[in-house]
Design a protein that fits this description.
It contains eight helices and 21 strands. By secondary structure, the protein is of the alpha+beta class. The strands form five sheets. The chain has a six-stranded mixed β-sheet. It has a six-stranded antiparallel barrel with strand order 4-5-8-7-6-9. Helix 1 runs antiparallel to helix 4. About 50% of the residues are buried.
Length: about 375
């Protein structure tokens, strides 16, 4: 989600992740939404460089005929007429690009989305270079132990990758524009509870993908339904803006993180949606007020199907907001996510599965 509130964290767990893992399959032949999430969080895809994520999604959609645009958005539409329902999740994640290779062989970076700068200090990062991943460490400030250290922002970042000259760094395959991402791991805190980087919004992508694979689309009558995976949400909803020039839905459901304060140190007045208590409908955020009639309608449909939901208010924006000017009602759907925009974004499997089931219900009966 864009411009999320951050929790100041003083610890981060790191490990190396490998993309392209084989996914477990159910008897029906599809992966569960949890499998999809665990695979997708490890795929690098900062804003503007989401192609590997899109390739993964498209490979899991056999039988569909997805479309692409110049921005890189991916979507498919089933059916025709009205109402036209659009479900959209963003495929990009926070990160950096290589901005400069210094004569000393270190790297200066440019931000793509917003971290708390201080949590990056002295942490390991991966440069996704042409020859393969290159590991590095972000130098701490020289005065990081002082009681009044100098301000630290992405312009101050400098990555050390073991090279002693610009040519040595380039020999590793590193070049300007390469994406730089925190060295990821999936930390299983308990069965069905994990923390890692890029849950925002790979969980939303996973929910749409799992729903798309599981829905019997032959039963979708007298309506059009579009599932879309957008680019560049974290740097200004750019992908959704491009799609809004093409798609004119009656209803848009942006599937993205709800920034929950369900953690020990945060103010519960901000946006408390409890983990394990179900999906979340973002009633109000910084970009949208969900129409009261539609909010009640979604809650009613969820309760009819026995799906636990929470209606909550938050800060931050969502992709659906750019479709409102075209006449759409925006009804953002979420899961409770703790530690948003950090390296330890936390999610409960039950909430993600409920969200996926809610999407399937709305496709059929909204």
């Amino acid at each position: 989600m864009k411009k999320a509130a951050f929790l100041t964290c003083t610890f981060f767990i790191v490990f190396t992740g490998i993309c392209g893992v084989a996914l477990p399959r159910t008897a029906k032949g599809s992966s569960s939404v949890w499998d999809y999430l665990r695979a997708m969080v490890l795929i690098p895809g900062i804003s503007g460089q989401e192609e590997k994520v899109m390739q993964f999604i498209q490979a899991e959609l056999p039988g569909f005929e997805p479309e692409r645009d110049e921005k890189g958005n991916l979507w498919f539409t089933i059916g025709s007429g009205h109402p036209h329902l659009l479900f959209i999740a963003h495929a990009d994640e926070l990160g950096f690009t290589v901005g400069e290779i210094t004569p000393q062989g270190t790297l200066k970076v440019k931000g793509r989305g917003g971290f708390l700068p201080q949590v990056c200090e002295a942490q390991p990062f991966i440069i996704h270079a042409a020859k393969g991943p290159v590991e590095s460490i972000l130098f701490p400030r020289q005065d990081f132990t002082s009681s009044d250290p100098k301000p630290f922002n992405p312009e101050s970042y400098e990555l050390y990758l073991g090279a002693s000259s610009e040519q040595e760094a380039r020999d590793l395959g590193v070049k300007e524009g390469d994406q730089v991402i925190f060295k990821k791991t999936i930390v299983d805190l308990a069965p069905g509870l994990l923390a890692t980087r890029a849950v925002d919004d790979r969980a939303g992508c996973a929910a749409l993908l799992a729903a798309a694979v599981d829905i019997d689309w032959s039963r979708v009558k007298s309506r059009a339904v579009t599932f879309a995976w957008s680019v560049e949400e974290e740097i200004g909803l750019n992908g959704a803006r491009a799609l809004a020039q093409i798609l004119k839905p009656d209803y848009v459901f942006a599937v993205d993180t709800f920034v929950s304060t369900d953690s020990p140190l945060e103010n519960k007045r901000f946006g408390e949606a409890r983990l394990s208590q179900g999906a979340v409908i973002r009633a109000i955020d910084s970009s949208n007020i969900t129409p009261k009639t539609e909010l009640r309608r979604v809650i009613g449909l969820a309760r009819e199907k026995g799906l636990p939901v929470q209606a909550r208010n938050s800060r931050g924006g969502n992709d659906g907001s750019v479709f409102v000017a075209g006449g759409a009602a925006n009804i953002p759907l979420s899961w409770p996510g703790a530690y948003a925009h950090s390296f330890i974004e936390k999610i409960d499997r039950r909430d993600l599965e409920t969200l996926t089931d809610l999407i399937k219900v709305l496709v059929m009966v909204f």
